[in-house]
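Ticket #4471: structure export looks truncated?
Reporter: QA, pipeline team
Priority: medium

Steps to reproduce: submit the single chain below to the structure queue and open the exported record.
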Amino acid sequence: MNTDDTLIGRLVSGKYKILSHIGSGAMGAVYLAENTSIHKKVALKVLHSDLKLNDELLQRFRQEGIAAGRFSHPNAIQIFDFDRDEDILYLAMEYIEGLSLKKLIETRGAQPVRKAVHIVRQVLSALDEAHRQGIIHRDLKPENIMVIDPDSELPRIKILDFGISKLADLGGEQALRTQTGRIMGTPYYMAPEQFTGDGTDHRSDIFAAGLVLFELLAGRRPFQGDTVSEILFKHAVEATPPVSTVNPHQKLPAGLDAIVARASQKRPDDRYQTAREMIQDLENIDFLKPARPSARPAARTVPGQEAASSRRPALIIGGLAVAALVVVAALVVPRFLGGGGGDDGPLRVSAKSPDRLTDIERTYVGHLGVVRERLAVGKLQEAIDAANLALRLPCKDAEALLLRGRAYLRKGDVDTARLDFEEALQLDPEDAEVATALGWAFLERGDREPALARFRQAAEQSPDLGEAHAGIGVVLLARGEKEQARQELDRAIQLDPGLAIAHVHLGRILLDEGKLESAADAFLQAKRNDATLTDAYTGAAEVYFRQGNDELAEQHYREAMRLRPDLVEARRTLCALLISRDRIADATTLVADARRLHPNDARTLVLEGALLLEEGEPEQAAASLAQAIKSGATDAETLTLLGVARQSAGDYLAALDSYRRAVLLATTDDPRIYLDMGTCLFRLQRYPEARDALEKLLMLSPKTARGHYLLGILYMDYLAEEEAATRAINHLTEYRRLGGTDARVTTWIEGLNG
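Actual output as written to the record:
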């Protein structure tokens, strides 16, 4: 398809500089561009000039969730902007580097079952969110699915062109009337109702997802023909053939053919009625029955080298990065300035008319003003000092204790804060603000029910106290009662729009729902309301991390750490982010700081071990990982990484012990453990055991080139078994077929055949 090369170098709408052409499709050409205001790469889709959208339809599309950025999902390309600039109509989208699913299948053929199912589950997850918002894709196909890390066993994907489909949804023929009469959709993946005119709904996307799953498993489309008409005819009258008949080499687990068949039924009523239904069936697959699973691992070693020595610490880092970003709402300490108390308790000194204050009372109120000002800028010790001055005066009341308790709570000194709040409550049992503050203290200690009792007590005493409703919402959220929590948080914001903590936890709900733009708005509003609230920064950082904006994520994590140097969770998460960007020196500095603050934190010790292994210090890495296990990191991945460190240091017996313990703790069989264990046993000259471990590896992951290479050598030189030579030839031939580059293999095979 021709492209307009004159657009290269053009500054669109004064902010997007077009750098180069990426590709073209039925609806437009895609260019790599740069947002010059923030120096960020974007993908700019310039729609073909024959698309006729009037200004009314253009505005309607802008107001839709996907054009406004309100529709967001980790597996869907984010649309940042949609506008017209003179003669062109464009969408500015998230720029992703990767491989299209079409190209992946064309170059590598049918994919392993686990990998195929994992990809389609992500597709369905994005569709599920879109369908719940009334958005139908209508043109789902492998070309519109980007695989970000195609060599991974379980790669991440992003779906393209939700925005284009929404244009069709809005205006129908009026919106997308073209000079060429384009079909909205691709015939190979269109549901029958899309080209018969019987009406399209979300079940058309489910049909396409079923065909994508078929193609991933079979390596080709289910319906083929010489012309589009022939393909459309087959779509209309022929049932989707079973994958097992098209690709008999693909060993399918029980039930997977049936899932593909149901998703691709001709009548929409006979298909899965929701994407969530299909996800549930895929999640219930038992990959071990009746055949072995066939997950495809990433290539982790260079042939001829030790597997352990070339292992990057991504095994731990990937899981850790996720774990570090998951924050339990009930354990997040609210760091904010409270609102006013109830009206029924004793009159506070600060509430008196200024002309009725005594000199001592004026001094007292002055000290309280200093406390509030110091709290507002995060100078907690100065706030405590000013509160102490106020509490030495004879006119002291519950307010000074309340403010000092808030300062202690923000410092992390929960017990001292609780004592201040309890003493304040003794002075004024009817003070709803104090009861609320005591609820936060209980919540920080993990005592949800006492916290909820205090929050509800405060809400009864002062129904208009937004902070009390925010507290109720936080506890309900921790208990999994999300809708009730949302209602309480919404009410808290209505009562007090400046209540930062309510915006933070509403952001947490939106983040959990995958509504990243709305979550970002909530966290940023919290930051505007209280610039010292670390939870606002860490929440915004998580949004940016999920959106792939590493720079902004790092900026917000660092700001959170500036506000609270002891925030080890943010340090760990930022460290994992830096490692993923190969900024090893910066990550090492962060881990060292975290170790000084929390010497025995297990997850920090795991990170330290991973970094030391990356830097070529296996002995020190093993020491850190062993200490992590003593501190509680007794999971299979940490034990495997310890085995890698010990093996790299030459301590093969200790490494073997770590691998065996990892196998016992692993919830599912991990082929990587068996590869490292087999290599270790090989070095220990325990050849039959090495063979068993490597054969287990290939049962789980038959396309692991390194496994075939080692087994070929074992059968060739070390195992005097029946048909050993034939087995050696088979494994070495498969190693070469899978891309192995050890030139000696050809000579070995010739010698065995001779």
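Status: closed, not a bug. The export was complete when the record was re-opened. Leaving a note from the reviewer for reference: Confidence is low (pLDDT under 50) at residues 168-185, 291-345.
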